[in-house]
Design brief:
This protein is an all-alpha fold and about 80 residues long. Helix content is about 35%, strand content about 0%.
Length: about 80
């Protein structure tokens, strides 16, 4: 397995070995896989890309808008991303 995924850590290879087992009785379930050391250690407690939870006040302000404001210019070129 480490030959197929040369940059994988030992924990990653161990998890992969348990996930690619043909027998469903021996293969890890989703719960077992998600509680594997590789995933617990690899995923930080709070990933930087996870949006923070907003307060009710902030959500209320975000939902307020002026229908007379043209926001189409804000999305110009977004299809090019």
């Amino acid at each position: 397995m480490s030959v197929l995924v040369p940059l994988a850590s030992a924990e990653c290879v161990a998890l992969l070995r348990r996930l690619i087992v043909y027998s469903d009785e021996k293969r890890y379930s989703a719960v077992e896989a998600l509680s594997h050391d590789f995933l617990i250690e690899a995923i930080p407690h709070r990933a930087p890309y996870v949006p923070r939870v907003h307060s009710k006040h902030e959500i209320a302000t975000v939902l307020e808008y002026d229908p007379n404001v043209d926001v189409s210019s804000l999305f110009f070129g977004i299809a090019d991303l």
